[in-house]
EstP (Undibacterium macrobrachii), 897 residues
Amino acid sequence: MEAKFEVKYLDVKWYDKDTVLSVKESFIPLKTEFDAESQYFKCNTVIYPKVDGIKNGRMGFRFLFKNVSSPYLEAVDGTRIPLKLIIDNESGKEWWIEADTWIPETKMWGSKTIRTAGKMMVVLQHQICQVNIGSVDFTVDQLERYLFDFKSDLWELILDENSYVTGKVKKMQDGGVSEAGIHLIAKLLTHAQKILENPKSELREIQTLKPWKMVKPVTRTFMELTTKGESRFLTSRATKPSYNVPENRYILFALERIYKILKQLVNIFRSRVNRFDAAIEKLQVRYESFSDVKLIDKDLVRRDLERLRSLYKLDDLNQAIERKLGQLSLPSEKLKTWYLRVGNKSSHEQFAYSVSIKSDDDIDWVESKPYERKIFLSFKDDRFKSLFEKNIEYELDAEINITKEEVISTDPPPYDFSISQYNYVIVNLNRLKITGGISLKNRQRKFSEEKEKAMKHNSEGWIKKLSLQELSEQTKEKSSIQTRLKHVEEQCRTTKLAFDLLEPKLAKFKTILMDLKALGVRPSATFPNSMTFVQNPNYQAVHAGYKNLREITNLSDEDLLLSLERIDEIGLINMPLLYERWCLLQIIKVLIQQFRYFPDQDWKRKLLAIVSNGTRNQCLHFTNDYVKRSIQLWYEPKISNGRTPDFVMDVKFEQKMLDSPKQISKFNDDSFGVDSVSNGGNDESRKQTKRFVMDAKFYSLDLLQNIGGIASVIHQLYHEKDYSEGGKNAVFVLHPAVNAISEKVSPQSWGKDSYLGELEMFSWDKQLRQTHYHQYGAICANPINRANYLDEFQRLIGMFLQYGIENNELENNEDDDVRSINFCLACGSHDVTKLPKSNFNERSKWYVCNECKHFTTYNHCYICNTRLIKNGDYWTYHSQMPMEPLNIKCPACESLV
């Protein structure tokens, strides 16, 4: 259903309580979504209890079609609060606002509802809009800094002539402008000062009083002689120099533009210096935090022990099975009783497990025997497959079909012989019970070992001394941090140098502008076809330099500059929409600056259309030929189910050469990618596509809690709105609420604020864990937390580009390495080297980045054979073991590596 109204923030100026002087509206309406269950439209906004500087900002409602009734607010008790009609004199638009009490001192209408956190129901003719109001404890200084950073980031992306962005090969001055650009600005200042010393002028005839001996008579002179007689002063012709000539008007226009560009460059450098300083401080803190001991999170240890205990307790396991069976449609009639000993997963695609089996009628177990027979279990209904695990014994009431065939054995000895192969197919079942198994004994043994470790750490104050291997891993990470620190310090040094060179010139340009205006010059964009720009080197230099500067800063397109100037006027009255666009800028920054993707030629115009006009279904293209990946980044596209998430990344990537027909068949699986693989030799046939969905929610912590927490938001997006499109897409929430993760599951520093789907956390995700790990979650992207927010984006997007695009369910003897092109998650470089290994796992692969020395290990889970990737303590997106920082938990089965 489409809304027949729009909601915007308004800044209203009043002459008196009934007379509106002006109405300034936010440039994009608030996003409203129709909720089919409640039959309401819903939108979200926030209030700022610590801010006094934006009191005039209020929500306004406008009908998009002719209305026949007045809208009103509906209180919880059913009381109707009518809205006040105001008319924007400039546009003629009619807006309805809440006007509670007139405040004569400030000449404004007060509003109770919109300044209180909670829910507000607005009845707009035949449609109802529920406004969810959250509270954000940002101060006005923090909000101003947020807005400043947003504008600075946008200008930086547009002006940055980084080689990834423009493809030009030039000597760069870190910070977004070349050394030639800095020298050009200095020359422009010199030439502008020389113009001011001797500006072009025209003599204009005027009339003035002069001594009678110097008079050049005009008509008025003779009138004065006839009326006044002799007089010491008479009106005379005279001339006065005028500086408001076309040449000066154009020069003033050019200098104003130069000043605006220079001001943004200075802001960019200031923002970058602050960012680099924060990054240096963060890296130094990380480096200094390394020691030969580790503080263990006892709450996470307790959580692990409780889970381990539940994994071997028969009562807990059988209760879980009963819950699963209760969700299935099962037959009620009595079925035959069977007993199963489930073995390893079968390497045959049509079978699930090798098993031993018997029924009530059998005395002995039917088992596989070498050179004689093999026994396999499979399922007619895939729903039953998830109920069974290897090395577990079961008792079940089921309908089982048995087939037998003679096959040629592939087991040694190396000559062919025939054996019997039995396939037991579970057609239906209505009772399942775990009775024992080797796996349960192993789990109980593991619990005892972990409990013993926990008791030891408890006696030592939860401080663990690192082993030699752990110290060795720590040394690798320290080396990577030192390399990164040197690089950032060099960037910071050159950026500060550029800032120190440019910042003093800003005031000097401003003085020149004021002096020119004091001479009566008014700006004009029309270039005069005058000989002055040929004969006067200073006029010529300013004109040529202005065009040169726009080319150097990638602003030769007039529309780009005008759009940037318009965006520069954005105020603080629409923070949720600003947050959404801020998130978009961070995604683009990570792709370009961290992972080194090239945007397409027209990306700037598209980006400005999104930011300034909210243009939907817009697509930006990025490519990285070194790692054989291309990305389509969509803003508010309409996906297959008609929904419009904020951001969709479609990643097209090329597989490495596939080694065997089994691997080729595996990558042909429709559940993995959009495109299919037909063979291993054709480049086009090895290309796959995977989709990643992100949705920005400017929710405060109290608003999150009121709607059920981050678990509820993730569930709504992944399942109810089906952004996953039936479980095919990864879906993540971007939000600014610190401490939104109510139950920390990972000991890493990011675990307290972000959830990357690394372990089971929610009550509704138990059925998805084995196949949908790292497929949903949320990160805390807080624009006020300057030191960490970009790392959160980098870890999330890096996880998807490195791990999320892969099929991570490995075959028994399959290589642990990824099938896409390897890259460094820490710095984005493709220049990585495979290292010789010193461990016993022949399947694992080790890589080191030749640029930043970051170390990456590709491994697998020994329980369920899921691929695992270790990226060091800081960048690893899998959960680490609380008591063993070298080891990580498998996201599929949560087992220790």
User: Anything to note?
Assistant: DSSP finds 20 helices and 37 strands in the chain. The mean pLDDT is 84.
